[in-house]
Write the structure tokens for this entry.
Amino acid sequence: MECRVRLLAPDTVRREEKLPTWTVQQVEDAWESVMKRKRQKSSGTLAAMLRPSKILFVEGTYEQPIIVIQPVKKVHYTYLSEEDKCKVLEWALTTEFETTCLVRFVSPE
């Protein structure tokens, strides 16, 4: 049985197959700016629940990264998981990083 392997130059890999290029550190560094942007479209309650939350990792693809966040309390998780709260945060992240971004919350329990 014959086996063939073909190596591709990095620039020939389709962009949507690439892993996200952001690191947790980059998201954390931009977090204060994201919070300021978010204030344009939401109340202080959202910020109060997001501030102590932990950014766990970045998943998804190069074209559409997903920021995975863990709130510190179950009640925060429930509040933040509401669609309108996610949309405001996704808008702020998309504006900050200039690429479409999604958010996924992980329960603290």
Remarks:
- The first strand starts at residue 54 and ends at 60.
